[in-house]
Amino acid sequence: MKLGLLQCDEVLPEFLHIIGDFPDMIGGMMGGHRDDLELVVYRVYEGTFPASVDDCDFFIGGGARQSVFENEDWIHQFEDFVRELHACEKKFVGICFSHQMIAQALGGKVERSSRDWGVGIKAMKISGTKPWMKPPLTDCHTLFSHQDQVTRLPESAELLGGNDHCPHGLYTVGDHFLSIQAHPEYSVDYVRALTEIRRGIIPEPIREAGLTSLEQPHHQHELAQWIHNFLKAAE
Fold first, then answer.
1. Whole-model pTM?
2. Residue 230 is inside which H or E element, if any?
3. Which domains does the chain have, with CATH numbers?
């Protein structure tokens, strides 16, 4: 399986020892479920994009420190590429920034959250079911780290999960786009490092609650399994 990673940011050098850079995170998340994975990395934040949507079997996009509504050339180009993936019904998994980009590219709305930062382990109430959502969960506890979020879904989207802080946390568009606000590729230690370094940026009560939540059990493995099942369904 040739999986194209649309890399939207890079890990800070002082955090590379925790879990590596984003290709390491995605490779680790997906490689644990199959041994025929070929990860092809496109550093889209530097303006490097696939020549064609057919360059890879599937695509996955991750998070970024920037916002999808910022006026930068690579962000506009990324939005155009997401629309092209959609027009071709190419399988694409969007995580965090890329999840938000799916919404924006297809007519939804992304804004700075009125509920402030979402950090730590939070539960998503699973409100929909798909054949690839195995093992089944009614609540999915997973890692979050975001300030922006989707406030209006595209008309073609089907909501599958969310919570009071982030109502549009998990959705699909047709059978080809899977969109996730949470970070199934992150580790607890990496989220802890991100949260700690943002002292003075994240309000202290939210930051401390987020750090405390990291002691809870989580469903990182199960959410990664859903992604694997989603992509495998197209083979």
1. 0.96
2. helix 220-232
3. 2-232 (3.40.50.880)
**Paired tokens of 51:** 């020549």
Structure tokens at 139: 């609540």
Distance, CA of 55 to CA of 57 (rounded, Å): 7
Element (H, E) at 204: helix 204-213
Which two structure tokens, joined as six digits, stand for 21? 């850079």
* Residues 44, 8: Cα–Cα separation, whole Å: 6
Nearest CA to 129 out of 166, 90, 91, 160 is that of: 160
Provide the 10 A C-beta neighbour count for residue 59: 25
d(CA 235, CA 231): 7
Is there a contact between 132 and 178 (Cβ–Cβ < 8 Å)?
no
Q: Which tokens belong to 36?
A: 């025929």
3-state helix, strand, coil in the chain (%, to 5): 35, 25, 40
What are 124's two structure tokens?
Answer: 């998503």
Please check whether residue 52 is in contact with residue 87, taking contact to mean a CB–CB distance below 8 angstroms: no
Whole-angstrom distance, CA of residue 94 vs CA of residue 166: 16
Give the helix/strand (H/E) hosting 189: helix 188-197
Mean pLDDT by 10 residues, the chain (235 residues): 96 97 96 83 98 97 97 98 98 98 98 96 96 97 98 97 98 98 98 97 97 97 96 79
